[in-house]
Design a protein that fits this description.
The chain is built from three helices and eight strands, in the order ααββαββββββ. It has helices at residues 2-31, 33-58, 73-76; strands spanning 64-65, 67-71, 83-86, 96-99, 117-120, 126-136, 152-157, 163-172. It has an eight-stranded mixed beta sheet with strand order 1-5-6-8-7-4-3-2. α1 (2-31) packs across α2.
Length: 175
C-alpha cells in the first residue's frame, strides 16, 4: 500500500512539473515570442551543426541541399524543402542565389562557417562556403550582396531576428 502511495506522489509531482513547464512555455510564447523563436533557432542550429559534424566525421557524408525552381516569394512560400532561385536577387556582381525559409529547411545553413563543405543534390561537385554576408531583413538590397564570393549563394533568415545570412559557395576538389 505504501508503495502504491509513493508511486502516486511521484506521478503527481511529475505531472505538476510538466504542467508548470507547459505554462512557462505558453507564457514565453505569449509575452516574448521573438525571444522564444530566437532561443529555439539557436538550439536547433546548434543541434544541426552537431549532426552535420557527426555525419561528416563518422559517416563521411556532407550536408546536402536541393535547388528547386526559379521564382519569387510565391515559389519560396511553397516551403517544399528546396532553395528557390530568387529572381529578385539577380544583379551584376551577385551570384545566382537560392533562398529557403528557416522553418522550411533553410536553417541548415545558419550553422555553416567558411570552409564548410556541402553537396547540392543533382550536381557532381562538392561545394565549399567561401564567403558569408549578413544583412537586415528590412532596408537591405542587392547592393549589400555585390561582390559576394562563389558561383552560387544560399540564403535564409535567423529565427526571431531581423537578420539574413547569405553563404557564397564555390566548387572544390573532393578530398
Amino acid at each position: 500500500m505504501a508503495r502504491k502511495r509513493r508511486g502516486g506522489i511521484v506521478l503527481g509531482a511529475l505531472g505538476g512539473v510538466l504542467v508548470l513547464g507547459g505554462a512557462a512555455i505558453l507564457a514565453g510564447v505569449a509575452f516574448a515570442p521573438e525571444q522564444v523563436e530566437r532561443t529555439y533557432g539557436a538550439v536547433k542550429t546548434s543541434i544541426d551543426k552537431t549532426v552535420d559534424e557527426v555525419q561528416e566525421q563518422v559517416f563521411e557524408e556532407l550536408p546536402t541541399v536541393t535547388i528547386g525552381v526559379e521564382g519569387g516569394l510565391a515559389e519560396l512560400d511553397r516551403c517544399d524543402g528546396t532553395f528557390t532561385i530568387m529572381r529578385s536577387y539577380e544583379r551584376e556582381g551577385v551570384p545566382e542565389t537560392g533562398a529557403a525559409h528557416n522553418n522550411c529547411g533553410g536553417d541548415v545553413l545558419l550553422a555553416w562557417d567558411e570552409g564548410q563543405k556541402i553537396r547540392i543534390a543533382g550536381r557532381d561537385e562538392v561545394y565549399e562556403v567561401v564567403d558569408i554576408r549578413y544583412t537586415s531583413k528590412i532596408w537591405s538590397s542587392t547592393d549589400d550582396l555585390v561582390g559576394l564570393g562563389g558561383d552560387i549563394a544560399l540564403q535564409s533568415c535567423f529565427y526571431g531576428e531581423d537578420r539574413m545570412k547569405f553563404v557564397g559557395l564555390a566548387p572544390v576538389e573532393e578530398s
